Amino acid sequence: MFLQGNAAAALPLLDNILKRDPYHLASVYLKVEALIARQRFQEALEIVDRMLLQTPQSLEMMTLKGTCLQHLQRFDEAADLFEAVLRVSPAYIPALVSKGSICVVKGQLDVALQCFDMVIGGVETSYFVSLLNKGVILSQQKKFEEALVMANKALSISSQQPAMILKANTLLSLGRWQESSELYDQVLKKDPSNAWAQSHKQVADRMIELGATVKQ
After folding, report:
1. Where residue 57 sits, what CATH number does that domain have?
2. pLDDT, tens digit, 9 for 90 and up, residues 28-77
3. Amino acid 1: pLDDT
4. Which comes out higher in pLDDT, residue 195 or 212?
5. Domain of 158?
6. Is there a domain that residue 138 lies in?
7. Is 162 a domain residue?
8. Among 134, 117, 206, 125, which residue's Cα sits nearest to residue 170?
9. 106 and 28 assigned to the same domain
């Protein structure tokens, strides 16, 4: 239920299950995810810590604890946990995605790229997120053609707004003003109040106008 954007309604239902079975792994996991969705990070962390006393080797719980720490901006502790998980299971996708995200925050872009490259080919949702993250990093490194490849791959999976904006931004950086403007238009049709798309479309449209003026 909270995965559909209703974490508040999901929490009482999960609490009822956990009253009968406090260590029901799936319900604990879902409750922690719901608390994270509600930005109740410290409460989520305390639940995970209690669960880890019962299941100290659980990769799911270790990764979830790392996610809580990440939200609390305790990045070094979170990174250590993700590394511990990956020593046990080097291809564990949730830990790879989370480690990559922390590396982006810490400016360790090459390591982040390695993590996202390892995820590509895994579960579709993680694949999509990793393509987006890799595209953003490549853009930051001014490797715009490579970033465009990542954006197109992401869009082949889903036309979600982040993928459209990544492609539009990359086209803008490549000087492909018209294509960029058209993509921002598509974003604004779905989300007319998107300030990022509005401002960047204005830049693209202005460059189109300047190009037309120069040709005249």
Report:
1. 1.25.40.10
2. 877 888 888 888 999 999 999 998 998 888 888 899 999 999 999 999 99
3. 35
4. 195
5. 144-216
6. no
7. yes
8. 134
9. yes
The set of long-range contacts for 198-207, using a CB threshold of 8 Å and a minimum separation of 24, is 200/168, 200/169, 200/172, 203/172, 204/172, 204/177, 204/178, 204/180, 205/177, 205/181, 207/175, 207/177
**Total domain count, the chain:** 2
Taking the mean position of all CA atoms in its chain, how far away is CA 39?
A: 16
Residue 55 region, left (φ>0) first, then alpha (ψ -120 to 50), else beta? beta
Instruction: Please identify which residue in the block is written with the tokens 């810490």.
Output: 106
89 φ/ψ angles, rounded to the nearest 5 degrees: -140, 90
Which residues, including other chains, have CB under 8 Å from residue 55's CB and lie 6 or more apart? 23, 25, 61
